[in-house]
Design brief:
globular, mainly alpha
């Protein structure tokens, strides 16, 4: 249990550092992939809604501390996305590439709508078409491309940590 928590914290910190440093230099169409959202979606899908919610809280608070104009906005957005993606675990389980792509695109689209509503719509900026074409869509495409690799990397790390623990428990049983 502690090993899984330490691995999760390390994955979050690496994704946060990559998103705030390396990918700031590698901007495409003036957007950065949302790696912390992919981490939240991955853990929500792989471990369920409780883990998705807690990972979303941590990822959101990191972004709130770095970029947030209102403390708790990113945390709320990421928590809700992680929580609802966690419900998917009960309904679907597939090893294909289609489900992660769908989950990441839905999560990023919902994140973009939340962000538009709280940061732009409430301030009287009503041009959602411009916001969708210039910000949401390019970020969604970039996040999907990077997110597929990150999703499978997190899945591999999670399975490796679990399989080592199971092997250790099996050898201790005899």
């Amino acid at each position: 249990m502690i090993k899984k928590a330490i691995i999760s914290i390390l994955v979050i910190l690496v994704a946060f550092l990559l998103q705030t440093t390396v990918f700031q230099v590698l901007k495409l169409a003036n957007v950065v992939p949302n790696l912390l959202l992919v981490v939240t979606i991955s853990y929500g899908y792989l471990r369920g809604r409780t883990h998705g919610m807690w990972i979303g809280l941590v990822c959101g608070m990191l972004l709130d501390m770095m970029y947030g104009s209102v403390i708790g906005l990113y945390a709320f957005i990421f928590m809700t996305i992680g929580f609802f993606i966690g419900y998917i675990k009960k309904v679907f389980f597939t090893d294909g590439i289609l489900l992660p792509v769908i989950l990441i695109s839905i999560g990023d689209f919902v994140y973009g709508l939340y962000y538009y509503t709280t940061e732009f719509l409430l301030r009287g900026r009503l041009n959602i078409g411009f916001f969708f074409v210039k910000i949401i869509l390019p970020e969604m495409i970039y996040t999907i491309l990077i997110g597929i690799l990150l999703f499978y990397l997190i899945n591999f790390i999670d399975e490796t940590a679990l399989s080592r623990r199971r092997r250790k428990e099996d050898t201790n049983a005899f």
